[in-house]
Design goal:
The protein has ten helices and 15 strands. The protein is α/β, with parallel strands linked by helices. The two termini are 12 Å apart. Bound molecules: NADP nicotinamide-adenine-dinucleotide phosphate.
């Protein structure tokens, strides 16, 4: 089968289209013919080996040679004990821990799979898993956003921000989206009440405070976030620099205590099977998935560059 392969960390040029052996499903796995894969910042990070946490499992060389984690496709075959899905069924999954989506076929543990709901396209299903899980848990489960609250989403013009803005608006919040100038109109189109260009303004120095800060692009000292929280407010680190992550983990609980603030890591429970509430909202037309661009498998390097250089407004999809 064809796959996009790499053996060392680096820019998109280290990726190459190659013929590789077809995966053979283990007893609990299902072989999926991949029809769509969405790109995530995690693909870009694990491609380049930056930030350092993206090298977990492969400090010097990448552990997995085929990237791509949010897949949608059709079941081709199943391992001996994989009885939950039948050949011909349409499924989707987040396979971040094993990767392998930038290929014609991938083997997936059956418990990582969910059925593609009727009426949903492969590309919509592939867009949902990682970005949707971050948004759902960041805004609803851990963010616990209530009507009238103020929510700031840092990095809101990206994949998870796209869903997070819409979920926060549905929860009745006043929403501020922060991203680069190219994405301000996009964030407004999703419902953001206020937008901030991070290249021109620092939201922690504007004298405003929030009930929830959901941060997918964290680069500041934890104390800066504390200052931008209302009493009782929450800051949730999703992704960004390792320095900020360490501060959030080590001193976040301590420095947040005064004023009843919570400064925490959002450890996202990944998996398409946990997305039911968001899937329902998508099917009801209450949450939209915006697909910015589509690329064929052979153009994964160009697609990753487009995402990594910060142009994507919504999801970028590899169509196979
Ligand atoms: N905590 C967990 O359990 C967990 C699980 C899965 C994934 N993750 C992490 O979640 C993050 C994924 O987010 P995503 O898929 O939504 O990424 P994304 O689509 O790349 O969006 C990130 C957005 O942040 C913007 N950005 C970059 N630097 C910024 C800054 N200094 N201030 C404000 N915005 C900035 C980016 O724009 P430009 O770069 O173009 O300016 C981009 O629009 C990744 O870091 C991934 O590792 C965490």
């Amino acid at each position: 089968m064809k796959a996009v392969v790499y053996t060392r960390y680096g820019p998109p040029e280290v990726l190459g289209l190659a013929e590789v052996p077809m995966p053979v499903p283990q007893d609990n796995e299902v072989l999926v013919k991949v029809h769509a894969v969405s790109l995530n910042a995690s693909d870009w990070e694990v491609l380049r080996g930056k930030p350092l946490y993206s090298r977990i499992g492969g400090p010097v060389r990448p552990r997995h040679h085929i990237l791509g984690s949010d897949i949608a496709g059709r079941v081709e075959a199943a391992g001996r004990n994989a009885t939950l899905f039948q050949p011909g069924e349409d499924v989707f999954a987040d396979i971040l821990s094993s990767m392998g989506g930038f290929a014609e076929y991938v083997s997936v543990p059956q418990n990582a799979l969910a059925r593609v709901p009727s009426g949903m396209t492969y590309e919509e299903a592939a867009a949902l898993p990682q970005a949707g899980a971050i948004a759902l848990q960041g805004i609803r489960d851990k963010g616990q956003v209530r009507p009238g609250q103020t929510v700031l989403i840092n990095g809101a013009g990206g994949g998870s921000g796209m869903y997070a803005i819409q979920l926060a608006k549905l929860a009745g919040a006043e929403v501020t989206g922060v991203d680069n100038a190219e994405k301000l109109a996009f964030m407004r189109s999703l419902g953001a009440d206020h937008v901030i260009d991070y290249t021109r303004e620092d939201f922690t120095r504007k004298g405003r405070s929030y009930d929830l800060i959901l941060d997918v692009a964290a680069h500041r000292p934890a104390s800066a976030y504390r200052g931008a929280l209302r009493p009782g407010g929450r800051y949730l680190y999703v992704g960004g620099s390792v320095a900020t992550l360490l501060q959030v983990l080590l001193v976040g609980p301590l420095i947040g205590r005064a004023g009843g603030k919570k400064i925490r890591l959002l450890a996202v429970r990944l998996g398409a099977q946990h997305l039911a509430p968001l899937v329902e909202l998508c099917q009801a037309g209450k949450v939209a998935t915006v697909i910015d661009r589509r690329y064929p498998l052979s153009q994964v390097p160009e697609a990753l560059r487009y995402l990594g250089e910060g142009h994507a407004k919504g999801k970028v999809i590899i169509i196979e």
